[in-house]
């Protein structure tokens, strides 16, 4: 969405809407996986820890990381409104790579979910 922000505000909002939709779709799946592979006595703790870690790494840590990257880019270039925008734009590209990285881990868990479920049933 940031890559087209200067040319088309409508397409920017469309990309943001789709991005938010696709980011939010997995919340129910993650909760279902937790309920599926964790024993009933530990499910509430597992869900609480999952929410805590996701907020710590996402909501709390990512603005600092994005700001640090943006400041590092700004320090190497001339101070202008254009470079302020570009540095923020380039720093947000990290989010795409982190999303792909997280998606890879999500796919990797699919290889182990059945045996984890059987292990949870045995306990």
From TrEMBL:
> What Gene3D superfamilies does this protein map onto?
MFS general substrate transporter like domains (1.20.1250.20)
Report membrane topology: Multi-pass membrane protein
Q: Where are the transmembrane segments?
A: 12-38, 90-113
Q: Name one GO cellular component term.
A: membrane
InterPro entries reported for this sequence: MFS_spinster-like, MFS_trans_sf
**Keywords of this entry:** Membrane, Transmembrane, Transmembrane helix, Transport
Compartments reported by the entry: Membrane
Q: What is this protein called?
A: Sphingolipid transporter 3 (Putative)
